[in-house]
Amino acid sequence: MKNSYRFVAAAGVVVAAGLIFAQNKPATPQQSTRPADEKAIRDAAQALARAFEKGDAQAVANLWTEEGEYIDENAPPIHGRAALAKAYSDFFAKRPEIKVEAKTNSVRFLGPDTAIEEGTCTVNAKERPPNISRYSTLFVRTDGAWKVALLKEWGDDKDTKASLADLAWLIGSWEADNAEVSARTTYDWTESKHFIRARYSIAPKKAGEAASSGVQVIGVHPATGLIHSWTFDGDGGVGEASWTYDGEQWVIDSVGTLASGASSTALNYLARRGDSLFTWRSVQRTVNGAHLPDVPAVKVTRTTK
To answer: What is the DSSP letter of 272?
Structure first.
């Protein structure tokens, strides 16, 4: 499992320095205490996205409770399933063909029959920039099914297309070090400056453990207009991640496939702390659905520009 810890972080982090702390303390993956309910909620969130994408107003409304409510920052609340069905029907009558990508970032249970699901939603329409929003959904279990009781949605603070210039401050070399391993990462522009390329290496300090390395490429995905990264680990694992900025830190939602073929996920946070320091942490880490411990905030320091 040691290699799994390394790559789960590598799939989404922009610096190898963060990877070292993912393997400091070997631990057995912990299953969610309510895996069936969590899966049902995630499935309901995806069902909502698919119904919205198809323009099926009634299917969308049926995923709400009878008294469910939708709140948008730019419009009055919509209360009740019947009102929701009408509002969505009116909206779908005017909208172009769209593609919807919804990503659940977290599911938190408040009680036996209540939970909060949070995530991001990207709506793409022809000849229009992507519409990116963040949302928080209160789910309640009604007659055995998880339904939306309250959905709040707000827009991404950035109205313009994502720019790789927002990450230009990373160019240079960075490092992190502890008693067990050292990690180094160097960022540089590709020739066209359409991508930032990161080369990382990890050197264990314990005798008998092999060093590792890899490459990550960061750029604006042409299909979504969002910052995206692709990671290639030296042992054969691959991963990718979407990036959004919440006003304080980068939220990096990553998925990957380990060299063994196992699937991995992680939600990573990168926060700039000046020109020569940033912090990185990783939560909601899984391998083949089994939960791994969170990685607490790691300090990463610049060595050269």
So the answer is: E
